[in-house]
Design a protein that fits this description.
Growth Hormone, Chain: A
């Protein structure tokens, strides 16, 4: 959700605040790409490493919850990136500062995205395609709805306050989520007839 709304601000930050032409403003999506690519390299390794270590610690028994530690760096990077981008998107601050925030948002999103995907794949092994389709459906609905109000929100509040709201939502949902599913994930899976027991 935060990511979808955030994407709508990148052109307006660099065209409006920094007075860059459209072609130059579009180059700032490279920061998002760099953050995403870098995080993809670390995220996959972290997911595999934490899963192997937790399996070894718990007598070789694997659980989908062992994929959740990858969500922790993402739940930190995403709101930090939102705060940096929102509060540095000012004409008196160099354009590289919002780009650093944008890169952190991209990285945090990848950590969270890959962590959730691997968790869902493990939790719904036999029905993984349907579970991933359900995730894609809800992600698409959010991708459609949230950009409808994003321009009005940012016009009213500005980038600092607007991104602060997104960061607070990301903290409220993203920080407790790995711990919630670590604690209650197995109980939730056991209540579903489609989940792996």
């Amino acid at each position: 959700m935060s990511f979808t709304v955030f994407l709508t601000t990148i052109p307006s930050i660099f065209e409006g605040v920094y007075q860059e032409p459209v072609g130059t403003a579009g180059l700032h999506y490279l920061a998002l790409g760099l953050g995403s690519v870098a995080a993809a390299q670390f995220s996959g390794r972290l997911i595999d490493m934490s899963y192997k270590r937790l399996c070894a610690h718990y007598n070789g028994v694997g659980k989908p919850e062992y994929r959740l530690p990858a969500l922790v760096p993402g739940s930190i990077l995403l709101p930090v990136g939102l705060f940096i981008t929102g509060w540095t998107a000012r004409a008196d601050v160099h354009w590289i500062a919002p780009d650093i925030g944008i890169a952190l948002v991209g990285g945090g999103t990848i950590f969270i995205f890959q962590g959730i995907l691997t968790y869902v794949l493990d939790a719904f092994a036999l029905h993984a395609a349907s579970a991933l389709a359900a995730l894609a459906f809800f992600r698409s609905i959010a991708g459609f709805c949230f950009p409808l109000f994003a321009p009005a929100m940012y016009n009213t509040l500005g980038y600092g306050k607007g991104d602060t709201i997104l960061a607070c939502v990301a903290i409220a949902v993203g920080v407790p989520a790995p711990f919630f599913f670590w604690t209650y994930g197995e109980r939730i899976r056991n209540a579903s007839r489609y989940a792996k027991k």
